Amino acid sequence: MRAGEWITRSASLLRPSLEPKAVAAGTAVASASPRTTRERLQATLRRNQEALSPRVLRRTLSELQAIVDPRVSEVEGSRLACEFARWYARASADERRDCWLLMSEQFSPDPRQIKVARERYEAALGTPEEAQAEIGLRRAFVSPRARLLQRFSGYPEGMRFLVDLRAELLPHLKSDKRLLPLDAELEGLFSTWFDVAFLELRRISWDSPASLIEKLIKYEAVHDIRSWGDVKNRLDSDRRCYGFFHSRLDGEPLIFVEVALVDEISDSITPLLDEGAAPADLAKATTAIFYSISNTQTGLRGVSFGDSLIKRVVETLKAEFPRLKTFATLSPIPGLRQWVAKNAPAELLAALEQPLALAPKSPQRARLMALAARYLGQETDNGKPCDPVARFHLGNGARVERLNWAADPSPKGLKQSFGLMVNYLYDLKRLDKHRTMLSKGEIPISRAIEDLYG
Fold it and tell me: What sign for the dihedral angle of Cα 246, 249, 255, 261?
């Protein structure tokens, strides 16, 4: 029997469920800091807070090593990875955390190989051997961890397993820096595996499978979908909804955008979400309003789809509706209220508790609009716009076009931004210019925004 098969078939006999859960009184020693997996693998007994005993930890490491054993074929390696994933699905949260630690700490590049490769590369600089030495250095930095994760991606549900694993891992990174290498490895691989070249743009319509429409309802992150009537309105004849899909996550949109086809830039979300409103006349539509963009996979955080999605959707819309000339958003300002709370005087904050009651020419309303314009047009964090939605659209080449009072009177809109929303304009001839401005620390804004804060 092959070693990998013996390990897999014997796993059920060695799992924590059959391992003694407690040690004799007085034998467990509290530690000021958690032990590394290297220390635990050399130990005999577990300590407090350690899910897997040293014995089971060693066995689990052996199973993971068997998956990447160079003597094991791709097919067999993927089969072993699938078997491990099945156990992982039944494991407790703490047991899964121990698996992450093993992947992170026990599958790093060999520092000795890196040192030798670096010395060879430095010695070869400027010689005919430089190119070959560079290849050797690159190979030395490739970790066994990457190979392990690639083996997990080899079976049909493997990509789903890895995306979900990272989603579960992310909240633990701040409290346990030992997990950072595993997260970085996953993000790097995902950036390649989910490159736009491997994604398919699909339209989501009322005729799409019910399972897909249910995912639209589940993942909508900007304006909650309240009913089937609501979602039907968003998929009506004057609307378009598109998503990026990956063949290994078939049926699951990675990101989707909802678009309204209208005759001018929208200044309120209310009519767009009105289920009773008649569809707009497509023959008169000159403007496409992107009013909701939602990422669906937490595990793909850091992998950018939005820029490519908007470009592809614009191209698709222009092909179907040649009259479309204007492409803009109607976007929330999720960070505004928190920023205003830190930068506005107490008397203004008190007046803003009921922003919809403010008269059109009230000084408090004017001051809030000025603050919002400053927040979007001037405030940066490490050279990037403070607001996360602004960061996304401005990074894609849009500019801050217009602020809209009482554009989102919902409780969520009032809580986030006093009901304000913003239009970002995608001027297709100036996208590169706007990106260049942003790279130099200058936020692209319209004259209307500039006039608000003078």
Answer: positive
pLDDT of residue 37: 93
Active site residue 393: yes
Catalytic residue selected from 153, 393, 417, 434 = 393
The model's pTM? 0.85
3-state SS of the chain is CCHHHHHHHHHHHHCHHHCCCCCCCCCCCCCCCCCCHHHHHCCCCCCCCCCCCHHHHHHHHHHHHHHCCCCCCHHHHHHHHHHHHHHHHHCCHHHHHHHHHHHHHCCCCCHHHHHHHHHHHHHHCCCCCHHHHHHHHHHHHCCHHHHHHHHHCCCCCHHHHHHHHHHHHHHHCCCCHHHHHHHHHHHHHHHHHCCHHHEEEEECCCCCCHHHHHHHHHHCCCCCCCCHHHHHHHCCCCEEEEEEEEHHHCCCCCEEEEEEEECCCCCCCCHHHCCCCCCCCHHHCCEEEEEEEEECCHHHCCCCCHHHHHHHHHHHHHHHCCCCCEEEECECCCCHHHHHHHHCCHHHHHHCCCHHHCCCCCHHHHHHHHHHHHHHHCCEECCEECCHHHHHHHHCCCEEEEEECCCCCCHHHHHHHCCCEEEEECCCCCHHHHHHHHHCCCCCECHHHHHHHC
Catalytic residue among 78, 153, 331, 417: 331
What is the reported pLDDT for 55? 93
Per-residue pLDDT, 29: 42
| Residue 223 falls in the annotated catalytic set | no
Residues of the chain with pLDDT under 70: 1-32, 454
Q: List, in order of start, the domains of the chain with CATH numbers.
A: 3-108+143-193 (1.20.140.90), 196-329 (3.40.630.180), 336-453 (3.40.630.150)
